[in-house]
Amino acid sequence: MADKYVVGLDQSTQGTKAVLLDSDGKIVARAYALHRQLISPEGWVSHNGEEIFENCVKLIRRVVEEAGIDKRSVAAIGISNQRETTLAWDRVTGKPAAHAVVWQCARGREITDAMTDEGFRDRVRQRTGIPLSPYFPAAKAAWLLRHTGAGELSKTNRLCIGTVDAFLVYKLTGGQVFKTDYSNASRTQLFNIRELSWDAELCRAFGVPPEALPQVESSDGDFGATTLEGYFDRPVPVLAMMGDSHAALFGQGCVRPGTAKATYGTGSSVMMNVGNRPIDSAGGLVTSLAWGRGGKVSYVLEGNLNYTGAVITWLKDDLGLIESAVETEKLAEEANSDDTTYLVPAFTGLGAPYWDDAARASLTGMSRLTGKREIVKAALECIAFQVTDILRAMERDAGITLSELRVDGGPTANRYLMRFQSDIAGVRLRVPVNAELSAFGAAIMAGISVGVMPEDVTERNGVSAEYAPQMTEETRRTKYGGWKNAVNITTGRK
C-alpha cells in the first residue's frame, strides 16, 4: 500500500490548501494559494468561483509534482470546504451567474427579516437545527435569484445552486456530477436534518427551486471522478466531502459520541459528536450533521466564536501592545497572577451561547496595578473562557461530561493559553502533530473509502503536546465566576 496516495483539498475562506498523504496518513507534500477577497462599496464579501477552481487544479498538480510520485499512484481525492459560501451557475456551461456570496456576507438580511415577520423563525430552527440568519446559504441563494442572472437560469431549468463543494465537484467532473454531502447540506437552512432531505416548505419560503439544488450524498460517497483537466492519465475518484469544521472533527478522530474538538483560529469552532440522533440545544448552540458514513449519519452540537485569535490581532494592530502573537505567552507568564482583569471581546456582539448582538466589548476588574502584561493575560484567558462556556453548554445539552478536548489551530502553540484552557475547563487537552486537520480529515476519509488507509489512521497522527488540569476546583470556580460576572456587566444583566 505504500505506493498509493490520497489528495486532501481544503478550500477555505482566505485560500486553498492541498496535501498529499501516503497510505500511513503521513503528509508528504503540501501547497497553498490565496484567492482575492472581493469587497463591494456596500461591504458585501464575494469570491470568484472560477479563480478558486483554477487554484484547486493548480494545487493538486503541484503536490503531486513536488512529491515526485507517479501520477497513477493517486488513488483518491477528498474535499473540505468553507461552509455556507454560496454560488449559482449555469448547468450547461458551468459558468457562475455571479461571484460567490461568502459566508461572512449578510446581504440577505432583508430576506431573513421578512421571514421572521412571517413567523418562520421557529420552523427554521426546528427543522434545520440552526437559527434563521443571512449568514447561511438559503438567504444567499434567494438573494442571487433576485439580483443576478441566476433568476433567468432558473426560468430555463439551467440553474445550479450550491455551496463551494458542490461547485468544485461539478467543475472537476466536467459537469457530470452535481452533489453535496450531509454536513454541507445541513448548514444551508434548506435541509431537514431529521428527514435527511431538502425541505419543500422552506425552499418555497426562500424562493429556491429544489430542482436547482444538488443531490445529497453520504460524506464518504461517490462524487464522481476527475482527470484534472487532462492531467491524470485516468479518472481519479472523489470519495469524500465535508465542511471544513466537520473534516477537522473527523481528522481529530472524534468519531464516537461525546468526543469533541476546538479549532482555534481568527474565530473558533467548538464541536461535539453526539451520535446518531440530533439533540436540540437549550444552551444557545446549533445542531448539524457531522457526516454521513457507512450508510449512517452522525450529528454534532456546535458553537462558533467570532473573537479568539482575533483578540490577539486587536492587541497588536489596534492597541499596539505587542509586535507579534509570539510575545503574548511570555507577557502572560510575567503578569500578576492575582490580577482580576477580564476582557469580554464583544466587539461585534456576543455569539454562542449568549447571542447578544447589542453587547460591546469591555475590560472590567482592573486595579491601579493593572498594566500591559495583565491586559495581555486577560486577552488570552478570554479565549479559554469563551470555549469553556460552549463546552459547558454542550455537556448540559448532551448529558455528557467531557474528560478530553482535542484542539488544533495556530494558537495551540501558546503554552499559557493551553494550560489555562485545560485548567479552566477541567479537561485534558490533546494537540495533534499534524495541524492541517480539515485537509487531513477529508483525505483520510477518502483513503479509507478507497481502501488504501486503515480505519485507525487518525490515531497515527500522533500528539505533539498534552495538557492536564492542575488548578484547584476552588480557584477554577472563583475565576470562572469572575468571567460570568464580567459577561453580565457587559450585557447589562447586572
Overview of the structural elements:
The radius of gyration is 22 Å and the shape is globular. The longest helix has 27 residues, at 372-398. The mean pLDDT is 93. It folds into two domains: 5-243, Nucleotidyltransferase, domain 5; 253-494, 2-Layer Sandwich (Nucleotidyltransferase, domain 5). Helix 1 (49-67) packs across helix 6 (164-172) and helix 12 crosses helix 13. The strands form seven sheets. A seven-stranded mixed beta sheet has the order 18-19-17-16-22-23-24. A six-stranded mixed beta sheet has the order 3-2-1-6-15-14, sandwiched between helices. Strands 4-5-8 form a three-stranded antiparallel beta sheet. It has 494 residues and is an alpha+beta fold. A hairpin with a 3-residue loop joins strand 16 and strand 17. It contains 15 helices and 24 strands.
Strand and helix layout:
Elements: E1 5-11, E2 15-22, E3 27-34, E4 38-39, E5 45-47, H1 49-67, E6 74-81, E7 86-90, E8 100-101, H2 109-117, H3 121-128, H4 137-147, H5 150-155, E9 159-163, H6 164-172, E10 179-181, H7 182-185, E11 191-192, E12 197-198, H8 200-206, E13 215-217, E14 225-226, E15 236-243, H9 244-251, E16 260-264, E17 268-275, E18 286-293, E19 296-305, H10 309-318, H11 327-334, E20 342-344, E21 362-364, H12 372-398, E22 404-408, H13 415-425, E23 428-432, H14 437-450, E24 463-467, H15 473-491
Parallel strand pairs: 1-6, 6-15, 10-13, 16-22, 22-23
Antiparallel strand pairs: 1-2, 2-3, 4-5, 5-8, 7-9, 11-12, 14-15, 16-17, 17-19, 18-19, 20-21, 23-24
Helix pairs in contact: 1-6, 9-14, 10-12, 11-12, 12-13
